[in-house]
Protein 1
Amino acid sequence: MRSEQEAERALSLYADTVRRLCMVYLKNYADTEDIFQTVFLKYLRTPTIFESEEHEKAWFIRVTINACKDHLKSFFRRQTVSLDALLPSDEPAIEDEHKELLSIVLGLPEKYRDVIYLFYYEGYQATEIAQMLGKNVNTVYTLLGRARDLLKKELEESHG
Amino acid sequence: MDKKLREAFDQVRAEDALKEKTLSFLKAAIDEEEKQRQPRPLQKCKKSGTFVFRLPAFASVAAVCAIFFVWLYAVPVSAISVDINPSIELNVNRLDRVVSVEALNPDGEKVLSEVKLLNLHYESAVETLLNSASMQPYLSDESFISVTVAGKTERKSLEMQSAITSGSYAKRANFHCQIGKKEDVSAAHALGLSFGKYRMYLKLRELDPTITPQEAGNLSMRQMVDAIQDLGGSLPDSGGGAMYRHRQQTDAPFPPGEGKKRRQ
């Protein structure tokens, strides 16, 4: 098991990434807390030796996605969908403009949400995303294209 | 749109409360893990106690094994009496090894002072003894080389006799190997004789009741044999018809000796 210092370091480096992925996948903040803690606990317990920070970050993304998917498969998962439910009540609110975009992203089917996040925010290439998600590269390209079209369409509709 | 998406996602950050809560959770998990790794005091005592308590058991088993080995090795179960004039007894253990040797007369002591026979197989020991330089002065053609074996069982005695008569030293015409009785050993020792010579003494006493054990002890085997023959007796048999086995093919039961050179 890793040490407390390693836990603190991992939290400082990857907490935001894990948090965003939780937001992409999960329906409420309580689930986010559970998965967030689960992912970092898995990190403490994994015997994996990371070759670099990139390797480590990719591990966090992969494990978070898996944890979220497993949670969503659970029959007893909580069912809440609004963006506000994804954020704690005592945290400063996200700017409206960003909040709207995020709401549109989170309103997309699940299969588009993770590729959008990994591609646009984390900056991974389609091949890397395919590897992380265990999908075909062409599938990732297709998903990205469709997600982009859907986003444009939704944004156009929201702006009238 | 790319920029907007990045900016939007960038707005989402792990809340401090979430990080603090998670860190507390991880610390608790680390503590719990460490507690589980460290055996509880009771378990520790029990575990170490088990080892401590087992140690005497191991020691006992080792001691029993050692005693058994000592008993197996050190306790003689068979004996070989080599009598010429030197009278020497070899005590043999269950593994056919010589575990002790005893000289029953001064000549025997003299020979043994120069020969190491301990831990040898009894065949090698007899061969070493008879081929030793210190024994050679007693091995003339006129001497009577008597080897008497007394095994734990009759079968063992026969086996030992067979093994000894197959040695190179047994080719001498004046070499004789016979089977004795184990019960004679203590009786012989009580009289200060080897059990090989004791058998000969008993036979001689039948013919001449005046002979004393001390007188017999002072006689060489040749002298005793000649005395028996001169008194019209025959040498004692081995009780199993296996006496003097090496000379089975020879016509004369005993080599010609100096019949007149008997005890004074």
Note: The radius of gyration of chain B is 39 Å.
Protein 2
Amino acid sequence: MNAMVLAAEEGQSPLFPNGWEMLITFVGFAILLFIAYKFIVPAFEKVFRDRADAIEGGLAKAKAAQAEAKAARDEYNQQLESARLEAQKIREEARSEGEKILADFKDRANLESARITENAHKAIEAERAAAVVSLRDEVGTLATQLASKIVGESLNDDDRANRVVDRFLADLEAEQGRTGAAR
Amino acid sequence: MNPALRIPAEFVAPSTEDAYLPPFFEVGSFAFGKHSLLILLSVVLIAAFFMYVVRRRALVPTKGQYLGEMGYGLVRNHLGRDIIGEKDFRPFVPLLFTFFFFILVNNLFGSIPVLQLPTFSHPGTAYVFAAVAYVVWVGVGIKRHGLGHFMAKMTMPPNVPKVLYIILIPLEFLSNMIIRPVTHALRVFATMFAGHMAIMVAAAFMAYLATEVGGVLGIGGSVFGLVLGLFIYFLEVLIQILQAYIFTLLFAVYVQGALQEGH
């Protein structure tokens, strides 16, 4: 029989411990404490720490990615803005250029037309002058022939004929001047 | 011998010695019995379980690892960090872990058929645990504050008229330094012992009524004994878990009290 059982049967208090059981308990406790200290706790702590790191790392990474995306968007917006300004400037330049070209062409056309008009005037003037001269000759001859037929006297005498024609023409011009003034 | 096995003609209630079975073998005065076997078995079970579930150290835990983390996290966070405090709890985690799971598994042995012996119903086991706890919390207290200041902390509560210290110092010393470790040990021992006895009584009662008394009354009484036994059994499971928690919780509270600054 066990010493403990004997002791209990002898009326030993149940609070009286068995030394060997205490020793076994202490040894078992020490072994488990050693295993916990050496293996179990470090393993679980490592898992917890790694997990915390992974979560925090993930969060940090996400934050970095967000910041990067924001920077990219800002840059893009800036580029877009500058491109818009550039386009505006180019449009403005093109318009002013166009206006300048148009004005140039207008000026040149005006000059050309003025020149053409002037040339035309000059030609007309020259032709008119020529016409006046030839008319005067022709009218003179015709009038002289007619007058000699009527008068029956030769007006072939050039001096006389010229005087007559001149007087006639002077009269004609004077009359023309009157009607022009009246008009 | 056990009355549940050997039915007497007269009802004999099981007594304390029935909690002690004969040993498997003896070497001189050293007797290796069921109790010692269970102690060693608990060490193997706890170490094997926790080392197995955490073998992969996976960030995304498997079911087993999750269970292990829950158990470990309960001790580490609720008993360690929340009570001892963020600053100091880390060195105590292995000790808290060992206390809690060692006591838990050994208590639950009392509710597992065939094993059916809560090892803490033998007082020596409880004494060893309370002694280790006592040495540790007194040790860290003296190491932190020095012997004199630590003793002052333990025996001189603040905000008390000086005259009262004549009474208070002996009382506080008795309460904190002597009664505290004794109750720490007896609490877990007594609950385990009483639970074990209650189950034995219910079982003996049931067996006696069924086999010795017999008849309608005996069978009916036996069924009552069975119901009573089952009730006590589940109550015991609850108490076994609770006592493991309380022992470790109290240890954490003692450590916190020994470490805290101020008076």
Note: Strands of chain B lie at 25-27, 30-32.
